[in-house]
Design brief:
Layout: H1 10-17, E1 28-29, E2 35-36, E3 47-48, E4 51-52, H2 57-62
Antiparallel strand pairs: 1-2, 3-4
The chain binds zinc ion.
Length: 63
């Protein structure tokens, strides 16, 4: 087991942990009005840049 040679101060610990946060995912508004992730097909309308790739979930459940 690795053992640290010198004590890390509270200040050093805080400086190290200043980057230990969970990144907030960037969110865009689709043309259908719902929030979705960028560079992904919208799960609500199934479109990416106004081109339909998949059937929307609501439409596929009715069929
Ligand atoms: Zn959409």
């Amino acid at each position: 087991m690795a053992v640290q040679q010198n004590k890390k101060s509270r200040s050093r610990k805080g400086m190290r942990r200043s980057h230990d946060r969970i990144a907030v995912p960037s969110v865009i508004v689709c043309t259908c009005g719902s929030y979705t992730l960028p560079h992904r097909i919208c799960p609500t309308c199934g479109k990416y840049h106004q081109v339909s790739y998949t059937k929307p979930k609501a439409e596929s459940t009715n069929v």
